[in-house]
Amino acid sequence: MSKAMPKTMYDKIWDHHVVEDRGNGVALLYIDRHLVHEVTSPQAFDGLRAAGRPVHRVDSIIAVPDHNVPTKDRNLPNPDPMSTAQLTALEANAREFGLDYIDMTDDRQGIVHVVGPEQGFTQPGVTLVCGDSHTSTHGAFGALAFGIGTSEVEHVLATQTLELKKSKNMRVTVTGELPKGCSAKDVTMAIIGAIGTGGGTAHVIEYAGPVIEALSMEGRMTLCNMSIEAGARAGLVAPDEKTFNYLKGRPYAPKGGQWEAAVNFWKALKSDDGAHFDKEIVIDGSQIVPLVTWGTSPEDVVPVTANVPSPDDYADPAKREAVEKALEYMGYAAGTPMTGFQVDRVFIGSCTNSRIEDMREAASVIKGRKVADHIIEAMIVPGSGLVKLQAEEEGLDKIFTDAGFEWRDPGCSMCLAMNPDKAGPGEHVASTSNRNFVGRQGPGARTHLVSPAMAAAAAIAGHFVDVRNF
Amino acid sequence: MEKFVSVTSIATPFPRVNVDTDIIIPAKHLKSIKRTGFGEHAFETVRYNADGSKIEGNVFDGPKYKGAKILIAGDNFGCGSSREHAPWAIAELGYRCIIAPSFADIFAGNCVKNGILTVALKQEEVDALVLAAEAGHEIHVNLNDQTVVCQNAKYEFDYNPAHKEMLLNGLDEIGQTLQAQGAIKGYEDKQKLMTPWLFRG
User: For A63, which of A36, A170, A398, B36 could close a Cys bridge (C-beta 3.0–4.6 Å)?
Assistant: First the structure.
C-alpha cells in the first residue's frame, strides 16, 4: 500500500469540510462558524425572510455590532439615523432568528475579529466566515477563515455551506529573530511590501518559520489579519501550545472531557512534512525594521529611515503611474524622508492592532510623555470592552489620557470612518489599521500604516520617528 | 439572479491598477440596509469634486461611454474590503461585464452572485481593449464560448464551470444548495461524533 500524499494544513481543513465534491477543485464546503455584524448582513436577513427560509444552525453564529458604533457618548442617542437603522436591524434580526447577540452595552462587545478569539469561538481546524475581508485574522488559530459578500452571508445562514473553488497553497517562511522595536505589524507589512497586494491572489498563505512561532497569539492575529492585503483568501498559522493555552477556559472553548479530544484533533492539523506548496516565499526576519507606508496601497511600504520613492524607481508603466497618483494624493514629493515627516492625527485601534498587547506596546512608548501640541487628535480605541477593562485594570488608560490621548469605547472607528471618527482632508494620519486607501479614513485623508509603537512615538514626537531610538 | 449569456456594447476604459472596493464605493455609503441606491456614489472620488460637482471628462459620466455595459479595468481590480455593495454599485451604473488582467477573489465571487461576468485576460489583451474602447468600438463577450471579440481580435478566457452554469441559467444558488440538504445533514451527523465540541447541546 502506498503512503498517503503529504497534505498542507489548508488541504486537511478543506478535505475535512467537503460535503460534496463537485469536480474541478470545486466543492460544497461546510462552514462551522459565522460572525455577523451590522453592515453586511441586513440584506442577507431580508433575503431569508423573502424566501421564508430559517437560519440553518443558530449555534454557529455570534452577532455583534462594530463598524458603525460610536466610540464615545454611547449613553446619548446616535446622531446618525442611517447608523441607527443598521444597528437596530442587526439587533432585530438577531432576536428574530434567535442568534447569540452581544449588544453595545455588553463588556464583550467589540470588533468581530477581536470578539471571536476572545470568546473562544475561533478554534483550530474550523471553517469560519464573516461578511468582512479581515476575517483572515482568525487564521492565527489554524482556522480556515475568510471574508465573504452579503449573498454568501445569506447562503451560509440558509445552508451552512458555500460552494467554493479550492485556492492554491502558498507558504511564507520568516526566518531568524525579529529585531527589537519591531512587532507583528512590521512582519506583515514587510511581507506585503515584498510580494505586493496581488502576491497572494488565489492562494491561502501558511505562515511558518521561527519568527512566526515566536509571535504571541495576538501577534499572529495581526499577521493573519493583513493576509487579505496581500490578496490571499486566508492566512494560516499552525496551532501549538500557545494556541491551546490561549483557548483553554474561554466561553465557547471545548469543556471537560472534550478538551483533550479537541487538543488531539488540533495537533494533527499542521502541514505534513514534504507537503507541496504551489508558491514559496522566504523572508529574513532579522532584517525587518520599523516600517511605514508612504502611498495609497498597503504594498507602498518603506523603512521609517528611508525616503518616499520616485516614479522613476519603477520600470512597469502601470506602477509608475500608480506611484505618481499616490504622491499627488499624499501631497509630498518623491525623496521626502519619512523620519521627521509631520503627522496631524494618530489612530491606535482596528482589528489589526487593538488587543491588550497592542495597548501595552503603545503604553510602553507613551508612559510619562505628552502628545505633541500640533496633533489635532490622538485616539486609542480598544478592540473590545474586555480589552478596555483589562487595560484599565493595568492602569494603561491613565498613561494614555495623562499624555493627551483620547481613550474610547470599542469599535472599528477610524479604520474606515463609518462612525464619527474621521480624519480631515489633507491630514496625515499615523494609523495602526490595515488600509491606506484613498479616502479610507475620511475624504482626502492621508493614511500611513504603522505598528502601535510607531504610532505612539509619532504622536509624542509629532512626526515619524524610528521607535528603536526613541 | 439575472442570467448572463452574452453582451455586446461599447466599453468604458478605466485601466487603473489595484482599484480597491473603497474606491468603487466608499464606506460612508454602506449604511443602507437595502441592496440599491449605491450607483450614484460609485467611483465617487473619480467622478465628483469635493464640492459635489461632477469631475469634467470622467469616463463614467461623459457622453462618450454612455450606455456602456462593459468595463475595462486594471490589474487586481476589486481588492480590499469584501463589501458586496461594490458590485451592486457597478451594476447600477449599467455594467454587466468587467474585463481586467486579474480580480481580487472575494470581489469576483460577489460579481457572480449579481449576474456580473468578470473576464480575466492577459495584460496585453486588456491594453488592446482599452484602445478599442477609447476608439468607441463595440466589444462582444460570450460566456457560452468564453470569448471576447472586438474588430478582428478574438480572445478566449477561463471561467469557473460552476459559476458559468449559474450565470447562464440565472440559478437561485441557495435553492440549488438546498437540494443537497440530505448530504449536509449527513455531514453534520458525522461531525457531531468527530468534533462534538462544535455543536451546542
Answer: A36
